Amino acid sequence: MLSGDFFYITSLEKLDGKVNVMLEINAAHKIFEGHFPGQPVVPGVCMMQIVKEVLEEALDKATRLISADNLKFLSIIDPFENNMINVELKYNISGDGEIKVVASLVNDAATYFKMSGVFVLV
User: Fold this and answer.
1) Full-model pTM
2) What integer pLDDT is reported at residue 19 of this predicted model?
3) Which residues of 15-31 are buried (b: 16+ CB within 10 A; e: fewer)?
4) pLDDT in tens, 6-43
5) What's the pLDDT band for 114 if we cut at 50, 70, 90?
6) Which residues of 39-74 are buried (b: 16+ CB within 10 A; e: fewer)?
7) Strand ranges inside 74-110, DSSP E
8) What pLDDT does 118 receive?
9) What gap in Å lies between CA 114 and CA 111, rounded to an integer?
């Protein structure tokens, strides 16, 4: 779990099937000592985990990613330059329990990451 250590949610807005979260990346986190020394970059896997955790916060339930499509890493997130990130997430729960998600990590200057995927409750 990255929330509360790697990132902190500063605001969360839930509407029917939509979530908008503002979060702050912890630029002092140990992960940046190795990714990359002197030039910190938020790892792509952390961006995906942020989406998962925001979905779980919205649903108040644990999830598991079962498929992901259209993963697009569009810009790097340097936590010292851009540590405030907006997560925009839309989801739809189907009759068979699959949760279809379209998400992006953005701020005023850039879109960093986009994905669509399918999650299930665990």
Assistant:
1) 0.96
2) 98
3) eeeebbbebebbeebeb
4) 999 999 999 999 999 999 999 999 999 999 989 999 99
5) very high
6) ebebbeebbbbbbbbbbbbbbeeebebeeeeeeebe
7) 84-93, 99-106
8) 98
9) 8
- Three-state SS for 14? strand
DSSP 54: H
Residues 6+ apart with CB under 8 A from 25: 6, 7, 42, 77, 79, 83, 84, 85
Structure tokens belonging to residue 59: 């649903």
C-alpha torsion 29→104→89→33, nearest 10: -10
In the chain, the amino acid numbered 34 is G
In 3D, which of 25, 23, 42 has the Cα closest to residue 34?
Answer: 42
Residue type, 40: P
Give the C-alpha distances (Å, rounded to integers) separating 10 from 13, 64, 73, 84: 10, 24, 23, 9
The encoded tokens of residue 1 equal: 């779990």
